[in-house]
C-alpha cells in the first residue's frame, strides 16, 4: 500500500459550465463523472485512502453510489475543500486532483509517484506553443507554463502552506509561497480541465449518457385543520380548512417531491427537510419543490413527466386542475403537456370519505441530461 492519499475535488458549483447539470454529475453511460474520474484514478495505483470532497447538498446522495471512498463536505472555495479533506489524511503524501480533469492518463500518475521524494510538491505542467501577450506586450512564451492537476504534496507542508487567509488557485502556489520546493514534470494534453460547457467536445474519453428512464413513486397524506389556508400544487384553494402539517402541508407537492427523489434514488422528503427542523415550520412547499428541482437538474437528470392522483372527498379538485397544472409547470420547469392531474373521491369510505383529510399519489419519470446533444 502506498503512503499516499488521493483527494478528488468534486465540490464546485460549475458556474462557468453553463449546462443545466453540474459537470461532476454529467453521466458517462450510467456513471456520474465524479465516480468515473475517481474510479479511473483509483485503478492507476494502490492509494492508502481515497477522499471525495463533495458539495454539501450532494454529499449524502454521493454516498449512495459506493462504499469505497471517504466522502468529505467541501467548502466555499477549492482551497477550503482541500482543507476540509486534509483533516482526514494521515499519510505522508497527498495527491489532489480536480474532477474537472476527467481524462488524466496513467503515465502522469506514475511519473508523479516516481518523483515523490524529489520536492515538497510535484506538479505536471505544459509548455505554451502559442505566442503570448501580457496586456498588449508579447512576452517570452518559454517562461510561461500551464499548471495541471493532480499534484503530489508532502501532507505536512501542504497543511502548513494552506494555513493562511490567502486564496491560492493550486497547491504548488501555496507551497511556493512558504518557500517549499517544487518539481515540475511533463503534463498531458489529455488532462485538460473542463471549465466551460463547450469544452466537453474536447474530451473524447467521455462516453455519452445512457438512454435509460427512471421512475419514482410518491405518496402523502394530511388531515384537515381549522383556521388554515389550503394549498395544493402551490395554488390556494377556497376551502374551509387547510392541512395539519409542519410545513404549509401542500400534500400534492410533497408527493411529487417524493416521486422525483424516488426516481433519482435520493431517499425521501424527510431526509432533505426534516420535520424536526424549525427552519421548515410553516414553509411554503413551493420553495421545497424548487430546491428539489434544482437538485434533480444539478445531479444530472431532466424531468420527463409527472402523473398524480388526488384522493379527496372534499374539496372538489376539477375546477382547479388547470391552475394547479400551470403552477406545477412553472415549478418543475416542464411543459404542461407533461403533467397530469387526476382526482377521485374515496366513495365516502374511511377518513378521506368523511372529509377529514386527503391523500395524493404521484409518479415521476426522469432521464439523464444528454450533454452530448446540447
Ligand atoms: N468550493 C469548491 C470549488 C471547486 N472545487 C473543485 O475544484 C476543481 C476546480 O474548480 P473548477 O473547475 O473551477 O470547478 P467549479 O468551481 O465547479 O467551477 P466554477 O468556478 O465555474 O463554478 C473542481 O474539480 C471543483 O469541483 C471544490 O472542490 N470546491
Ligand atoms: C488547480 C488548477 O486546475 C491548476 O491549473 C486550477 O488552478 C483550478 O482553477 P479553477 O478556477 O478552480 O478551475
From TrEMBL:
An example molecular function term from Gene Ontology annotations: metal ion binding
GO terms, biological process: isopentenyl diphosphate biosynthetic process, methylerythritol 4-phosphate pathway; terpenoid biosynthetic process
Location of the 2-C-methyl-D-erythritol 2,4-cyclodiphosphate synthase domain: 214-366
UniProt KW Ribosomal protein keyword: no
One Pfam family per UniProt: YgbB
Site (Transition state stabilizer): 16, 23, 246, 345
Residues engaged in binding a divalent metal cation: 220, 222, 254
Region (2-C-methyl-D-erythritol 2,4-cyclodiphosphate synthase): 214-374
Co-factor requirement: a divalent metal cation
Key word Transferase present: yes
Residue segments, region 2-C-methyl-D-erythritol 4-phosphate cytidylyltransferase: 1-213
Its EC number(s): 2.7.7.60, 4.6.1.12
Residues at which 4-CDP-2-C-methyl-D-erythritol 2-phosphate binds: 220-222, 246-247, 268-270, 273-277, 344-347, 351, 354
Catalytic reaction annotation: 2-C-methyl-D-erythritol 4-phosphate + CTP + H(+) = 4-CDP-2-C-methyl-D-erythritol + diphosphate; 4-CDP-2-C-methyl-D-erythritol 2-phosphate = 2-C-methyl-D-erythritol 2,4-cyclic diphosphate + CMP
Family annotation (PROSITE patterns): ISPD, ISPF
Pathway listed: Isoprenoid biosynthesis; isopentenyl diphosphate biosynthesis via DXP pathway; isopentenyl diphosphate from 1-deoxy-D-xylulose 5-phosphate: step 4/6; Isoprenoid biosynthesis; isopentenyl diphosphate biosynthesis via DXP pathway; isopentenyl diphosphate from 1-deoxy-D-xylulose 5-phosphate: step 2/6
Keywords linked to the UniProt accession: Isoprene biosynthesis, Lyase, Metal-binding, Multifunctional enzyme, Nucleotidyltransferase, Transferase
Site residues (Positions MEP for the nucleophilic attack), renumbered to this chain: 141, 193
Purpose of the protein: Bifunctional enzyme that catalyzes the formation of 4-diphosphocytidyl-2-C-methyl-D-erythritol from CTP and 2-C-methyl-D-erythritol 4-phosphate (MEP) (IspD), and catalyzes the conversion of 4-diphosphocytidyl-2-C-methyl-D-erythritol 2-phosphate (CDP-ME2P) to 2-C-methyl-D-erythritol 2,4-cyclodiphosphate (ME-CPP) with a corresponding release of cytidine 5-monophosphate (CMP) (IspF).
PANTHER family the UniProt entry points to: 2-C-METHYL-D-ERYTHRITOL 2,4-CYCLODIPHOSPHATE SYNTHASE, CHLOROPLASTIC
Similarity-based family: In the C-terminal section; belongs to the IspF family.
Protein name in the entry: Bifunctional enzyme IspD/IspF
Lineage: Bacteria, Pseudomonadati, Campylobacterota, Epsilonproteobacteria, Campylobacterales
Amino acid at each position: 500500500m502506498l503512503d499516499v492519499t488521493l483527494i478528488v475535488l468534486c465540490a464546485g458549483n460549475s458556474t462557468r459550465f453553463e449546462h443545466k447539470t453540474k459537470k461532476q454529475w454529467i453521466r458517462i453511460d450510467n456513471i456520474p463523472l465524479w465516480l468515473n474520474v475517481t474510479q479511473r484514478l483509483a485503478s492507476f495505483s494502490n492509494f492508502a485512502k481515497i477522499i471525495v470532497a463533495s458539495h454539501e447538498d450532494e454529499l449524502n446522495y454521493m454516498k449512495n453510489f459506493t462504499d469505497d471512498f471517504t466522502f468529505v463536505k467541501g467548502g466555499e472555495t477549492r482551497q477550503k475543500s482541500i482543507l476540509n479533506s486534509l483533516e482526514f489524511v494521515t499519510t505522508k503524501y497527498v495527491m489532489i486532483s480536480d474532477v474537472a480533469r476527467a481524462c488524466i492518463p496513467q503515465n502522469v500518475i506514475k511519473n508523479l509517484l516516481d518523483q515523490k521524494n524529489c520536492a515538497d510538491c510535484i506538479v505536471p505542467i505544459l509548455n505554451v506553443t502559442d505566442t503570448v501577450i501580457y496586456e498588449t506586450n508579447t512576452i517570452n512564451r518559454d517562461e510561461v507554463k500551464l499548471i495541471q492537476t493532480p499534484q503530489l504534496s508532502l501532507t505536512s507542508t501542504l497543511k502548513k502552506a494552506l494555513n493562511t487567509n490567502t486564496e491560492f488557485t493550486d497547491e504548488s502556489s501555496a507551497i511556493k509561497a512558504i518557500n517549499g520546493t517544487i518539481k515540475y514534470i511533463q503534463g498531458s494534453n489529455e488532462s485538460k480541465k473542463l471549465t466551460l460547457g463547450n469544452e466537453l467536445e474536447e474530451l473524447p474519453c467521455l462516453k455519452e449518457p445512457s438512454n435509460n428512464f427512471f421512475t419514482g413513486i410518491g405518496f402523502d397524506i394530511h388531515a384537515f385543520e381549522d383556521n388554515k389556508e389550503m394549498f395544493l400544487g402551490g395554488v390556494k384553494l377556497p376551502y374551509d380548512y387547510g392541512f395539519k402539517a409542519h410545513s404549509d402541508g401542500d400534500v400534492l407537492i410533497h408527493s411529487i417531491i417524493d416521486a422525483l427523489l424516488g426516481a433519482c434514488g435520493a431517499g425521501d422528503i424527510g431526509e432533505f427537510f426534516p420535520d424536526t427542523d424549525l427552519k421548515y415550520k410553516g414553509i411554503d412547499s413551493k420553495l421545497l419543490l424548487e430546491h428539489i428541482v434544482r437538485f434533480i437538474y444539478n445531479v444530472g437528470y431532466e424531468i420527463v413527466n409527472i402523473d398524480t392522483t388526488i384522493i379527496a372527498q372534499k374539496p372538489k379538485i376539477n375546477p382547479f386542475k388547470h391552475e394547479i397544472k400551470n403552477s406545477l409547470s412553472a415549478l418543475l420547469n416542464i411543459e404542461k403537456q407533461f403533467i397530469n392531474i387526476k382526482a377521485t373521491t374515496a366513495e365516502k369510505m374511511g377518513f378521506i370519505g368523511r372529509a377529514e383529510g386527503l391523500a395524493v399519489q404521484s409518479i415521476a419519470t426522469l432521464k439523464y441530461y444528454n450533454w452530448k446533444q446540447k
